[in-house]
Amino acid sequence: MKAFIRIIGEVVSMKQMVRGSAIVLMLVASVLCVTAQNDKAAIDQLKNELEQKSIVYFATAVPGAAGTYVGVQHIKGMALIVIHCKAASDNVSFIDEELAKKDYRKVYKDLSMMRGNSYSLIFDFGLNSMEIESGSGDFIQENDKVRYLNKTYADNGFATQEEYEAFVSKYRESYIRWLQVISRKIR
Q1: Does residue 70 register a pLDDT over 80?
Q2: Which domain, by its residues, includes 127?
Q3: Which of 14, 25, 57, 132 has its CA 20 to 30 A from that of 75?
Q4: What percentage of the chain carries pLDDT values higher than 70?
Q5: Which helix or strand (DSSP H or E) is residue 58 part of?
Q6: Model confidence at 16, in pLDDT bands (50, 70, 90)?
Q7: What percent of the chain has pLDDT over 90?
Q8: ∠ CA(28), CA(133), CA(70), 5° rounding?
């Protein structure tokens, strides 16, 4: 009888644990859903601003980060290609001069091509906020290393799926921050 009561007690405890786990999973799913909605909202906002002003290329200095720039190429209805660059010190004055001339296309291209610059590119094809294994062709490039989001963690040189997801998450957050910097400057 004591064993039977103990088993019933364990079953009740397991039900409570399952309920608690289900609640936690629902909360995590809600947060991820809100984050995805916020990402999409930031992308849609910038896309609309670029389309309304017929902007294909735009670049700007990042406020409060000397020698750091962000730029975007907008392929209407298809993609945003965003660059974040820490310029080599001997390139900063040249980039600043081109920004003053509002030659955004040249600045955008020079950010990734000038020797000594350290940069990251995010290709968001389909304007979907960089979905892992989506088949969209999205990728992240750090200087000369490219990570394709429609490939597995192992194909991208990561030891685990968690490491790969953390890498993509970091860049997704950066991507949204970069879009916000660009959006504020366009207004």
Answers
A1: yes
A2: 38-186
A3: 132
A4: 79
A5: strand 57-61
A6: low
A7: 58
A8: 85
The structural domain count of the chain equals: 1
Largest Cα–Cα separation, the chain = 87
Whether residue 121 lies inside any domain: the answer is yes
Instruction: Express each pLDDT in 18-61 by its tens digit.
Output: 555 445 434 433 433 344 456 788 888 888 889 999 999 999 99
Q: What strand order describes the sheet that includes 57-61?
A: 57-61, 68-75, 79-86, 118-125, 139-142, 145-148
Residue 129 lies in a domain: yes
CA–centroid distance for 65 within its chain = 19
Q: Please report whether residue 20 resides in a domain.
A: no
The amino acid that residue 33 corresponds to is C
Contacts of 62 (CB under 8 A, 6+ apart): 68, 69, 70, 84, 181
Task: Look at residue 30 and tell me if it is in a domain.
Answer: no
- Give me the residue label for tokens 């820490």: 86
Q: Per the confidence metrics, is the pTM higher than 0.85?
A: no
Return the residue matching tokens 């940069």. Answer: 119
CA distance 148 to 126: 14
